[in-house]
Design a protein that fits this description.
Number of strands: 7
Number of helices: 4
Number of domains: 2
Structural class: alpha+beta
Order of helices and strands: EHHHEEEEEHE
Largest sheet: 5 strands, antiparallel
Helix content: 10-25%
Strand content: 25-35%
Mean pLDDT: 85
Radius of gyration: 21 Å
Shape: elongated
Distance between the termini: 7 Å
Strand order of the largest sheet: 6-5-4-3-7
Length: 144
């Protein structure tokens, strides 16, 4: 694959899809108690049982004594997983960054940006912030 030219000029070759390695956050609801404690420990300096209760929406599956035992024993961990996604954009923002729509759920649209960053926005914001992108008309080659 060819890297884009550096400098002021635009590269006028045709766009080619490319693989991006993306870091995905495992939802807290999907984590077992020890994994959730590790995530809390990773995110916050002083973690207490109340943080665990809040993360479990008031329904913790372990008591405070077990929480403290696990908190002392377990190392911090963010519990993200990495995944390869074929990036083939069809949307562009006002700054010229390219996006791929991954999925839509309710009023939310999940997006992947050309630099591997995941994000989401509402349908209303999406219609204001993004316009369709046609790779055939692009002056940029996103292959890196």
């Amino acid at each position: 694959m060819t890297a884009p030219r550096s400098g002021g000029g635009e590269d006028h070759r045709r766009f080619s899809p490319r693989w991006l390695r993306v870091s995905l956050r495992v939802p807290s609801e999907a984590l077992e108690a020890p994994e959730l404690i590790q995530r809390l420990k990773h995110a916050k300096k002083h973690v207490g049982y109340q943080d665990f209760v809040i993360a479990r929406k008031g329904e913790p599956e372990i008591g405070e004594q077990e929480f403290r035992r696990l908190l002392e024993r377990l190392p911090p961990h963010s519990h993200h997983r990495r995944e390869w996604i074929l990036f083939s954009p069809s949307w562009i923002d006002p700054d010229g960054r390219h996006y791929q729509k991954l999925w839509e759920e309710g009023d939310n649209i999940r997006l992947l940006r050309e630099d591997g960053i995941l994000g989401q926005c509402s349908r209303a914001d999406f219609s204001i912030l993004f316009r369709p992108f046609d790779p055939e008309e692009s002056g940029r080659n996103l292959t890196r």
